[in-house]
Design brief:
alpha+beta, seven-stranded antiparallel beta sheet, three-stranded antiparallel beta sheet, 4 helices, 23% strand, elongated
Length: 276
């Protein structure tokens, strides 16, 4: 009795109080070992989540070299991938990744110099799980606004686009058919066309629900003579099933705002350079 309780391999009860090591609140902390949380179970611990104890608590180990304890794929010795993540904990993302990783700094990019091959793994989409926090607001807005199908939209086109021939675009090699926007859209500088896609990209037949449609995204430029309020992005749905008439309609892209009790929406101020 009165002996100093210390951590030991035999789990001895040095002070004769019936308790030993971690079970004894009077154990000498100077004899503790250092243990680090391994939440992702990859065998590497989080240096910022260490505790002192005689024995390792459940889910803890002696290693303290993990750089991301939320991902079992990221730890010292892991293969570095082209994904913008420091997989091997070397201190920088893609630092020791394969040579196929896109590295724009290493390319002598020249306008008109053609295409360069880069690894698609360098452009991995990350799910930010916005639906989990926004579904109630989105559902409330959906209950407030009317829902219009693509078919209904295409039966209510309100702008006239005119077909063009190869003579209108002599530099277009292999021209098949095309159209031009009406003067109201051609003559303004504050809506800038960005990306283009359509039913031809969506289905091998070139049609969806019997419609042949080209969709173009536009970015609003407040500095080019438009309103001070950024209208964000609009999409133009063009009926290209006819060779004599290519009517279309603009649709403003919006995102939900407000609360589920009072839903609203606002413009999406991005460039919309890519669309599929």
């Amino acid at each position: 009795p009165g002996g100093a309780e210390v951590c030991d391999a035999l789990d001895a009860d040095e002070d004769c109080d019936g308790l030993a090591d971690d079970a004894d609140g009077s154990v000498d902390s100077a004899t503790f070992g250092a243990w680090y949380a391994d939440a992702d179970g990859d065998g590497y611990g989080d240096p910022a989540a260490g505790v002192g104890a005689c024995a390792a608590p459940a889910g803890y180990g002696t290693d303290a070299s993990d750089c991301d304890d939320g991902s079992a794929a990221a730890h010292p010795g892991a293969a570095e991938q082209c994904n913008g993540v420091d997989d091997d904990c070397a201190g920088a993302a893609d630092l020791s990744a394969p040579a196929s990783c896109p590295d724009p700094a290493s390319l002598a990019l020249t306008e008109g110099d053609g295409l360069y091959s880069v690894a698609s793994a360098g452009y991995v989409l990350a799910d930010e799980d916005n639906w989990a926090s926004s579904y109630a607001l989105i559902d409330a807005l959906d209950d407030t606004l009317p829902t219009v199908s693509i078919g209904a939209l295409m039966s209510d086109l309100n702008r006239d686009g005119d077909p063009i021939t190869s003579g209108d675009v002599p530099r277009a090699t292999g021209f098949s058919r095309g159209f031009v926007w009406n003067s109201g859209d051609v003559d303004v500088d504050y809506w800038l066309p960005q990306g283009i896609t359509g039913t031809f990209d969506a289905d091998p037949s070139g049609s969806v629900d019997g419609e042949q449609i080209v969709v173009v995204s536009w970015h609003y430029d407040t500095a080019a003579g438009g309103t001070a309020y950024d209208k964000g992005v609009r999409l133009s749905f063009v009926d290209v099933s006819s060779t004599v008439d290519n009517d279309y309609r603009h649709v403003l892209l919006v995102k939900p705002t407000g609360t589920p009790a009072s839903p609203s929406f606002e413009a999406v101020p991005v460039h919309a350079g890519g669309i599929a």
